Amino acid sequence: MDLPRPTRFFLTQGSSEGYTPLNSFDGALLAAKVGDVNLVKLSSILPPGCKRSLQPWPLDSGSLTPVAYASITSHLPGEQIAAAVAVGVPKNPEEPGVIMEYSARGTAKSAERIARQMAKEAFAMRGRELKAVMSSSVEHHVQNIGTAFAAVVLGF
Fold first, then answer.
1. Is 94 an active-site residue?
2. Is 79 tagged catalytic?
3. Which one of 16, 101, 103, 139 is the catalytic residue?
4. How far from the centroid of its chain's Cα atoms is residue 67's Cα?
């Protein structure tokens, strides 16, 4: 069975505190504007010709939504956590791009730098020319139980 190939994507991020790790994760999804859809986690390939949308489009509640994401949850009050995604776009629009996800204890700036480097390395490994790297990140200072979440949402 062939599923339709996504033609567009947007970057998003969010963070949250919660009563439990799942509540914290749910709050981060809500902050990222993807809390009322069913995320279908993807591996790291951007379909050929997929175009970036600078604004999120409306997502139908309960829909199956393809997404590549990074997340991290911590129970350590005072800890700083971060999540980032990077999209590598090829020079040749007929070739696929890559999506890289990274999360760790630390700053958003550091996580984003690493995710961007991962995208560059993925292109080098494939022997493809890189046109651009787009990225997004978020950090969170944990108070009780916190989550940082960054994603690339794909659509049709």
1. no
2. no
3. 101
4. 7
Predicted TM-score of the model (pTM)? 0.96
Name the catalytic one among 44, 71, 135, 136.
Answer: 44
Q: How far apart are CA 9 and CA 85, in angstroms?
A: 12
pLDDT single digits (tens) 72-85: 999 999 999 999 99
Q: Which domains does the chain have, with CATH numbers?
A: 8-144 (3.50.20.10)
Q: Is the model's pLDDT at 1 over the cut of 70?
A: no
Q: Which residues pair with 87 in a beta bridge?
A: 99, 134
Q: Which tens digits make up the pLDDT trace of 85-135?
A: 999 999 999 999 999 999 999 999 999 999 999 999 999 999 999 999 999
Q: In whole angstroms, how far apart are CA 53 and each of 3, 129, 156?
A: 21, 22, 11
Q: Is 137 a catalytic residue?
A: no
From residue 17, alpha-carbon distances to 13, 23, 31, 36, 145 in Å are: 14, 8, 11, 18, 6
How high is the pLDDT of residue 3?
81
In the block, tokens 């489009």 appear at 57
d(CA 119, CA 34): 24
